[in-house]
Amino acid sequence: MKKVTYILFGLLCWAGLYAQDTFGIIYGPYLQQTGESEATVMWITDRDAVAWVELAPGDSTHFYAEARPRYYQSTSGRRHIGTVHAVRLSGLQKGTSYRYRAYSTEVTRFEDFNVTYGKTVATDVYRSKPNSFTTFDNGKTSIRFTVVNDIHEKNDLLADMLGDVNGRNPDFFIFNGDMCSNMQTQEQTFDGFVKQSVERFASNIPFFYARGNHETRGRLAFDYLKYFPSPTGEPYYTFRCGPVFFVVLDGAEDKPDSDIEYYGLGNYDSYREEEARWLESVVESEEFRNAPYRIVILHVPPLDDNWHGSLEVKRLFLPVLNRARIDLMLSGHLHRHIYHPAGQADHRFPLLINSNEHALDIDVDMQRINLTVRDREQKVFKTLQFPRK
Question: pLDDT tens digit string along 185-208?
């Protein structure tokens, strides 16, 4: 009996040691909030760790040619400990390619000023080509991007919608809401669309995320900005790439705050009121007014469809946008393709509502916006052109 007990004890110890050795990166890295002089590298580890990124120029030198500068994730001067890592790279040169390596060192014990570290893991730059990215250049006269929405964790659908990423080589992607059905757990959310995005492009090409109504649901939804940060600290924000100024809006939920589905947690009406005030300041800014093009991304379209969210979005946002010389609005939510030219449905700008089984490939130059709608078999469904105003 004692022999059996010793064997079991030994097996348990071996299992514990083995479990400690499995520390690693479970999701990512994926790029967020890229601009002219900055980018954020995100990844997830399975246990608490400190994190940093080593950065190298996008030249022909080997990554190990010299010690590369390190960028740390820190809060108020103190390095961050956790499983969700967001390292902001700043002071970069516009329109410039960089290579990077993401590092994490496990924190096995943290008591006051006594910190014990475990294993260090990193993305591979020795046997594999390092991950890379290119900063934006707002002086560029043309850009290319792809938009998908309403995937609802269907990885086969997402794979079809992404298409030939390498052949098209977009500057970035936009996920226009409802990429997952809810955000209940990290595993569900990341396995639903982020993991495949990383495998296809997201370690080297950034995606910008417009929150849909389904991303407001579930326990993990409280941490939405922890995984998908924005420069405003809210799911609504702006960014510039080449000749286009983008306004990313958040329509939030589509039912009244009192609906039973929100379990008394809904406060979206006052949230949208605050967002509308922010939008007023955006359209008055020089950056917005002086941009050659202005494109709005909004998951819930502003329509008279008798749903509370759509009606509130129309009431609050549409008056501001109608006087702001918007070139194009891109929405989703309805799971079907609808196109309203400027002047229809009370919009002074063209509104394209994309279905969940179409992708939008968009090329912008100084003459026009060229938009191609393709289906999951990569066949062209529709093409549209919007000349520069």
Answer: 999 999 999 999 999 999 999 999
Structure tokens given for 136: 């934006």
Q: Which residues contact 309 (CB under 8 A, 6 or more apart)?
A: 213, 251, 252, 253, 254, 255, 268, 300
Q: What pLDDT digit, counting tens, does each position of 151-184 carry?
A: 999 999 999 999 999 899 999 999 999 999 999 9
CA dist., res. 326 & res. 340, Å (int): 14
Burial (CB count <10 Å: 0-12, 13-18, 19+), residue 60: exposed
Q: Quick check: 6 pLDDT over 50?
A: no
Nearest alpha carbon to residue 304 among 265, 257, 340 = 340
Query: Using CA atoms, how far apart are residues 160 and 170, in angstroms rounded to an integer?
Result: 16
Residue 14: how many CB atoms within 10 A of its CB?
10
Torsions phi, psi for 187 (to 5 deg):
-60, -45
Q: What is the three-class DSSP state of 91?
A: coil
Strand partners, 45: 25
The predicted pLDDT at position 259 comes to 83
Q: CB-based contacts of 86: which residues, under 8 Å, 6+ apart?
A: 32, 40, 41, 42, 73, 226, 229
Residue 114 CB neighbour total at 10 angstroms: 7
